[in-house]
Amino acid sequence: MSVTVYVPNDSAAIGIGANATAQAISKMAAERGIPIRVIRNGSRGLFWLEPFVEVVTSEGRIGYGPVEAQDVPSLFDARFLDGGPHRLRIGRPESIPYLAQQERLTFSRVGITDPLSIPDYEAHGGGRGLRVALQAPPADLVEEITKSGLRGRGGAAFPAGIKWKTVMNARAEQKYIVCNADEGDSGTFSDRMILEGDPFVLIEGMVIAGLAVGATEGYIYLRSEYPHAWVILLAAIQKAQDAGYLGSNILGSGRRFELHVRRGAGAYICGEETAMLESLEGKRGMVRPKPPIPALFGLWGRPTLIHNVMTLAAVPVIVDKGGAFYAGFGAGRSRGTLPFQLAGNIKRGGLVEKSFGVTLREMLYDFGGGSASGRPIRAVQVGGPLGAYLPESKFDTSLDYEAFSASGGMVGHGGIVVFDDTVDMARMARYAMEFCAIESCGKCTPCRIGSTRGVEVIDRVIQGRQRTENLTLLRDLCDTLSSASLCAMGGLTPSPVLSALTHFPEDFQRPPALAPGGRASRTIRRH
Amino acid sequence: MDSRLQANTSPTVPGTPDPLATIDSVIVAMRSLPGALLPMLHGIQDVLGHVPGAAVPRLAEALNLSQAEVHGVLSFYHDFRTVPPGRHILRLCRAEACQAMGCDALETHLQKRHGLTFHETATDGSVTLEPVYCMGNCACAPSVMVDGEVRGRVTAGKLDQWVQQWRANAGGNP
Fold it and tell me: The whole model's pTM is what?
């Protein structure tokens, strides 16, 4: 009988050697005449242990990590296929505190199953939501989503139930479900992990959404920076088609849903929903003014339900277990769980799915174990490049939408980027403006021009030229950006800038010679 | 699932296919897709490594657009190149998580040690350096993409190894 070995096929794991590890294991097993079956699973999301190899033994799965190709001979010598002792032996993955303390609803299968096996998917609870949905009247499905309290996980946190109801009640010959998989925020990778580690849950969520609102066609807009996810997603759609999850006769019900994938082309702004629609239509990714809202006038002018990957991937568990079950997690008006992502200068970076209400400090120290460099954590950016930089005095804030925004932050997509005390916050503020200048779609003036002016003003501050006047000008400019921009790109760029200025003013007062803004003269180039 | 999209898996290192024939075959394969311009531009670049100027009038005619509209789309998106890249493409992530782990020092290192700057190709044609803003590898920063493959926890030494190898394979050109 052959032994089953799991080696992640997640691109972050591959980026630090998982393919070489998998090959070394297969090769050595062949050389030693041991029959094994290597399954390429998703990642458990414990990246300091990647490549994380798991072996199925009589006592369950036993994990070893981080396993590099050069460790493989000694693992065979230690009889790791029987769970033997080795310096890299971690034990049962479920008993690792980092995993044991999570509440994995959306990520319940990631790292456990073969991402491209429908039987594996169904053996671990997949497909149940879809079967419920095929029996339920659309209005009941919308009601369950409303009851669950699910809010858009992409950043804006708009109540999903209201969107679903609007699209359901819209009258049109054709409606669409569009999945925004253009997760471009630095520090976020939960979408990528689902796309690579459990793509069927997204597909199932989109089909259920289609059944609920009366849409028969769906598009996934996937960022081009995720080439590995693209390959896996295309394979998953083919398998879903073959298994009857997609197509003209879903699981024999006679209902229909077709799914297409489109690749983005490196424009951050296409994560904004209306710019994404323009891009899907084959145009420049320029933001559309709202109203009309996409729920009524979306893709090719038709009613369109737009959600990001995390929102749609939460749908199957809600429909399977009920809205009340999902609403049983969370804090205040933020119901359910959020897959947080610990990134940057952090010792134990990874994916932490928790109920809303956990504090930033618990994330940084209990899960993250402090900085990777061992130096004090000085600043944390939550919610992507448009999120505020928070100092230690804010670390006890509860991570839920309301509490976090009351303290000047934004939960956004749940990305948490950690910086140690070597960070220069004036330079981070400059980068925020530079990023806006590079990625602005150019439709509105505050964003297009204001961001470039912002870089220039911050450069003058760094160089020590008329600091007081220029800091006043910078605040004035931020005010213009936040009140007069068409979308969140220009509207929220002041957030990292002003938070840096408010919480770390000393970084804007350094003697010019010491200011490490050495690239102050770097010109902005869009291409 | 649309089989017409399946051929484009990941960015490929350009070979020497005939540009015009490539453009025309991509147009024929994709012209019935709704919103076909982006998939077509990707399709052309996947094969040729860039989108040559000759593609613009052909795409415009096939899609009933003006050449200005096609040019507008082509120039809007960071991914599309209008000139051939080097034999290898190195994309260095500049986003915040990678900055927290020292990507700026890697950028400086590439410039000082190897003379590589963003958006430029080495004079021997061995490598093009491009910035990228997040590849979802933020727990293993700093990150790069080497010919379409993400690599994490990159060091200056690792970059030296790659660049030297590419330079050596460039055939002794300076």
Answer: 0.95
